[in-house]
Amino acid sequence: MRRTAALLLAALLLAPATAGAAPPARSGFAEALSRAAPASFGIYGLDDRRQAALPAAPSPSRFWHVGAGFFLDAQGLGVTAAHVVEGCRQVAVKLSDGRVMTADVLAADAESDVAIIRLPTTLRAAPLLGRAATLRPGDWVIAIGEPFGLGGSAVAGIVGGKNRHFADDPVMSYIQTDLTMNPGNSGGPLLDAEGAIVGMNVRTVVGQAGTGGLSLSIPIELVLQIARELQRGPIVRPDLGVDFHDLTPVEALRLGRGMVNGARIEAVRAGSVAEQAGLVVGDLVVGFNGRPVDSSADLAVALLTWREPRGTRFTVFRDGGFRELVLRADALH
């Protein structure tokens, strides 16, 4: 009897789970993707300039820009990267449910790389828009796009940093991620772990010798800001005429500062607004029109909405002290 009881106990312990038992919990981002998928789409734009530049006519796909985009509302207003639709006479859109249609490019701002388009369709519900401001380094993020034409492809990674600015991008600040993005991802949505759209994917910075770099996305708050202004008409920004970057630790020590806050002026173009305002190479801008500038990204974002040069005020650190520079109306020419 003891042997029989022992065998029965062993059988119970080794038996598989019954059919009525709950399946193991799933991990991953499938739910987040299912929430965001209806708001995303692929973009294929026919570029006549590329076709004219080729001596022969191989596959028509050689003449298409491939990218992605997403809806901003349920009435068919969408957004993508401006370089995806630049020069295209026809923009074909592929929705997540497989439908294909032609979209109209309403307006584009090449400087910020944002374009708004109109799709002849509606959504059952408005897209879920999140807040990039709440992202933290280390948070999970997801990108949806059309890499190499592979529709609705998703990749996941983490936020590497925020408020990233580059000297060759005077009016933009980016979210940095380690997402693996390829041609065809530009213009697609960046999602948080819940599936809310928190940015638009636009660039990948490749390391030396082609090594893996980092990817950049425009925060959704800036995308919406630019889209609203584009709906009112073309965006015409004054050209400040400077190149600027974050203050490096070495530069901070040379200036006798214990912090790396501010935007360091590294070039001033002759005859520019900046020159007329009195900015010089080496100035550290720490204030712009009364708002603090803690990084080059702060200055770049401020320039996004800067429209009137007259009366523009800069607070700069120069020669060990602070100065206020004001662009007078009679200084402009």
Can you describe this structure?
The chain has 333 residues and is an alpha+beta fold. The chain contains eight helices and 18 strands. The protein has a six-stranded antiparallel β-barrel. A six-stranded antiparallel β-barrel has the order 7-8-9-12-11-10. The longest helix has 13 residues, at 2-14. The protein starts with a helix and ends in a 7-residue tail after the last strand. The model is unreliable at 1-24 and 51-60 (pLDDT under 50).
Report the portion of residues in β strands. 25-35%
Are there runs of 5+ residues with pLDDT below 50, and where? 1-24, 51-60
The CATH architecture of the largest domain can be given as Beta Barrel
| Global geometry | globular
Q: Taking all residues together, what is the mean pLDDT?
A: 87
Q: CATH homologous superfamily name of the largest domain?
A: Trypsin-like serine proteases
Quickly name the level 1 CATH class of the largest domain: Mainly Beta
Rg from C-alpha positions? 26 Å
How is the main sheet built? 6 strands, antiparallel, barrel
CATH topology of the largest domain: Thrombin, subunit H
Percent range of helical residues: 10-25%
Task: Tell me the series of helices and strands, N- to C-terminal.
Answer: HHEHEEHEEEEEEEEEHEHEHEEHEE
SSE inventory with pairings:
Layout: H1 2-14, H2 30-36, E1 40-47, H3 48-53, E2 64-71, E3 77-81, H4 82-85, E4 88-95, E5 100-109, E6 114-118, E7 140-145, E8 153-164, E9 174-177, E10 189-192, E11 197-205, E12 214-219, H5 220-232, E13 242-246, H6 249-254, E14 263-268, H7 273-277, E15 284-288, E16 291-292, H8 296-304, E17 313-318, E18 321-326
